[in-house]
Structures are given as structure tokens and as C-alpha cells.
Specification:
Pfam families: ATP_bind_3. This protein is 44% helix and 10% strand. By secondary structure, the protein is an alpha/beta fold. It has 2 domains: 44 residues, no CATH class; 247 residues, HUPs (Rossmann fold). Strands 5-4-3-6-7 form a 5-stranded parallel sheet, with helices on both faces. It has a two-stranded antiparallel sheet with strand order 1-2. The structure holds zinc ion (2 copies). One zinc ion binds next to helix 11.
Length: 338
């Protein structure tokens, strides 16, 4: 029986069928193609420039670990612009089901940290906000306000990244979002009729938002499945521990919906992300997007009067405690870092 050969090199047996392109690839060509996609994304959208100080947000999942591995490897190979500083950090939400606790492999992050000379640090919600996510949840729930734990974590985590960015003097924060995450985001924005969110969706770092550290997503054109295979064969641990809150998270359902749709339309994830990017481009016009203002309580960037963190803290009855702590961070009225 003829073993199907790799459609790229024609020299080695194929190990992977890429549904979106119809290619049959050997692992060698698959891994090279993934690395090429990431480096092309970085160059095409100018995600990383000379002298950038990049913070890699490590959630502990395979995506952020793969991102740390790849950026370290690229810098070592001289593929990144000159004088790029890399750092990595994790955020400990402070409850036993938090994303941080799913990361049982902090030893692997330490290993990468040493191998690629990327300093690594863990921050807790407690040290950043003066309160934990559980404090916020209890405060809200005791008043009969039902807010999902993932929402609280999400709002605080996004702010935490900004605070950490200012503390470390980062010019950009890199996250491990992959093609599947991005496709889900497009669908979620559509399903919740949230056009405004597309203004910040595109591939380019948002360098014109004052007080906001730009985010970059170098893996956003790589399918989750391919990252998993890449991770597995490069000794990057795959954490399969699911957060118990995940089942009521709307993304969880979308994952299966997308997988079903993909059977009829193998390019659906690329199409969704391209559609989101086109909308983002249309909306990059400053006249269309909601301008960023400063929160009247904490001075952090927000589209309304009060930022979502302060809104949560106020409802949870933790405003005084939070603001007292926030002042000690000396971040009030943060200036643009770009
Ligand atoms: Zn090949
Ligand atoms: Zn605020």
C-alpha cells in the first residue's frame, strides 16, 4: 500500500491533514508552516518593533506556553527585531478554580524562562486590587447581584494586565489567543450585538489608546488543533484540567457550534476572523468608535464614566478598600506608554 507523502516536501510520509487547505503534511512541514505563519503575522502587522519591551501573559494553557516558547526561540534565532526585551507573567486570581490554578506546570515556565532568558513573575489579584475575585463575588452575591465568576475574573484580569504593564514599563502585552479564540470572539460580538467591540478587534496593536498597553496576538492565524500538535511534539505540557465554571461560559458552546459548521465550511474560522478584521478596519475611523475616557474614580481608560472594575467594586461594596489600595500603586491618571 502506498503511504501518502507530504504534499509540501514530497519526501516524508504525511502525518496531518489540514482541512482548510487540503494539504497533507509531514510533522516537519507542519511545524515549519506554523512557525512561518507566526513570524509572518509578527512582521506583516508590525506586532513587534525594535526596542519593544514585550510582556507575555501566561495563563498556563498550551497556547500561552507555545507563545512563550516561540518568541524565545525566534529571538534566539535572530528573527525578531533588535533589542527586544521579553518578560513573562501570570495572574493568580486567588480562588481554587481560577485559571491560574489550572497551571500545574509552573516548572515548565521556569524552564523556558531560564532557557530563553525571559524573566517570569506571578502577580495576585490581592496585590493588584487589594481584594480577591472571591471577595468581589461574595460582595455581589450577598446583595443578590448574580455575576458569573468568569466575568469577574475576566474584567479584573484585563485590568491586571494593564497595571502589570505599567509596573514593568511594557510597550506591549502578547497573549496566546489562537484562530479559534478569535473566531469565537467575532461570533460572540455579533450574537451580543456589540459592534463597538470590533473597533478593538483587528490584528494591529492599538497604539493610540492613551493609558492602555497595546495587546498583540501572534498566534491568531493558527488553528487551536495545530497549536496542540505543535505543543505535544515540542514537550510543551497540555493542561486538560477544565475550569468548573466553563460549562456556563458562552464560549464553551460556541466551540462545538464552530466545529459543526466547520465540517461544511473548512475555512469558516478564517472567514469569521477576516470579517471581524474588515469591520475593525472600517471602525478604526475615530469618528465611528466610542472615544476612550478616564474613569472618574480610578483614572484608568474606559469608554463610559465609570470603568467596569470600579462598577464591580462599587456594587460589591468594596470601592473604598479597592481605591485605597489602588492609590498605593501610583497608577492614577496613567500616561500613555507608547
Ligand atoms: Zn513535508
Ligand atoms: Zn475605575
Amino acid at each position: 500500500m502506498d503511504v501518502p507523502m507530504c504534499t509540501r516536501c514530497g519526501r516524508r510520509p504525511a502525518n496531518y491533514y489540514r482541512v482548510s487547505s487540503g494539504e497533507k503534511l509531514c510533522f516537519n512541514c507542519l511545524f515549519r508552516s506554523i512557525e512561518d505563519t507566526v513570524i509572518k503575522t509578527i512582521r506583516r502587522y508590525r506586532l513587534i518593533n525594535e526596542g519593544d519591551k514585550i510582556g507575555i501573559a501566561i495563563s498556563g494553557g498550551k497556547d500561552s506556553l507555545t507563545l512563550m516558547y516561540l518568541l524565545g526561540k525566534f529571538r534566539k534565532q535572530g528573527k525578531l527585531p533588535k533589542n527586544v526585551e521579553l518578560m513573562a507573567f501570570s495572574i493568580n486570581e486567588g480562588h481554587p478554580y481560577s485559571c491560574f490554578y489550572r497551571m500545574a506546570r509552573s516548572d515548565y515556565v521556569q524552564k523556558l524562562s531560564e532557557e530563553y532568558d525571559i524573566p517570569y513573575k506571578v502577580y495576585t489579584f490581592k496585590e493588584l486590587f487589594g481584594v480577591t475575585a472571591t471577595d468581589v463575588a461574595h460582595g455581589l452575591w450577598s446583595k443578590g447581584i448574580n455575576v458569573h465568576m468568569c466575568t469577574i475574573d475576566g474584567v479584573l484580569r484585563r485590568r491586571a494586565m494593564n497595571i502589570i504593564g505599567h509596573k514593568l514599563g511594557l510597550t506591549k502585552i502578547a497573549t496566546g489567543h489562537n484562530l479559534d479564540d478569535e473566531a469565537q470572539t467575532v461570533l460572540l460580538n455579533v450574537l451580543s450585538n456589540d459592534l463597538d467591540r470590533f473597533a478593538w478587534f483587528g490584528p494591529k496593536p492599538e497604539i493610540d489608546r492613551e493609558g492602555f498597553i497595546p495587546r498583540i496576538k501572534p498566534l491568531r492565524f493558527v488553528r487551536e488543533e495545530e497549536i496542540a500538535i505543535y505543543a505535544h511534539y515540542h514537550g510543551i505540557p497540555l493542561m486538560e484540567l477544565e475550569c468548573p465554571f466553563v460549562y456556563s461560559n458562552p464560549r464553551y458552546e460556541l466551540k462545538f457550534t464552530l466545529a459543526r459548521w466547520e465540517r461544511d465550511n473548512p475555512n469558516i474560522k478564517y472567514s469569521l476572523v477576516a470579517f471581524g478584521d474588515s469591520l475593525a478596519k472600517l471602525m478604526s475611523d475615530k469618528a465611528v468608535r466610542t472615544p476612550l475616557r478616564k474613569c472618574k474614580y480610578c483614572g484608568q481608560p474606559t469608554s463610559g464614566d465609570v470603568c467596569r472594575v470600579c462598577e464591580l467594586m462599587r456594587k460589591a461594596g468594596l470601592m473604598e478598600k479597592y481605591l485605597a489600595h489602588f492609590k498605593t500603586l501610583k497608577l492614577m491618571d496613567t500616561q500613555s506608554s507608547s
